[in-house]
Amino acid sequence: MKRHCLALDLKDDPRLIEEYEYWHKAESGWPEIKKSILDAGITEMEIYRTGNRLLMIMETNEQYDETAKAASDAANPKVQEWEQLMWKFQQPLPWAKEGEKWVLMDRIFRL
Q1: Which of 7, 8, 39, 105 suits 98 as a labelling partner, its CA being 20 to 30 A distant?
Q2: In which domain of life is the source organism classified (predicted)?
Q3: What pLDDT is attached to residue 26?
Q4: What is the mean pLDDT of residues 48-54?
């Protein structure tokens, strides 16, 4: 298993943040999105929030390939619909590359 930690900001609007959290509750999530995540080899995923900053922790198996996941997502209309909906709430980190949403974080400490 490999762990990936990524960061992203939400728009700093309490109403939008509340709606974003609504879409991430188990009963509100889209089953097609969960399936695309699991099919890619992502075995665990958690998202944490403080203020408008998000931290995503993903655990992946040996089949996970970031490039293949991106290609699969680009070809999946339901994933694209979800991404369009989520972009309503999200904003890139100031140091994100053009078109980049979630930014991979570097581990700087381990106990």
Answers
A1: 39
A2: Bacteria
A3: 84
A4: 98
Residue with tokens 């369009």: 84
Specify the CATH number for 2-104; select among 3.40.50.620, 2.40.50.140, 3.30.200.20, 3.30.70.1090.
3.30.70.1090
What pLDDT, in 10s, does the model give residues 4-34? Answer: 999 999 999 999 999 999 999 988 899 999 9
Tokens of 33: 């999105």
Q: In the predicted model, is pLDDT for residue 99 greater than 90?
A: no
The pTM is what?
Answer: 0.92
Q: Domain spans of the chain?
A: 2-104
Q: Cα(41)–Cα(45) distance, rounded to whole angstroms?
A: 11
Which strand (E) or helix (H) includes residue 15? helix 14-23
Mean pLDDT of the chain: 96
Instruction: Note the helical H segments in 40-95.
Output: 66-74, 77-87
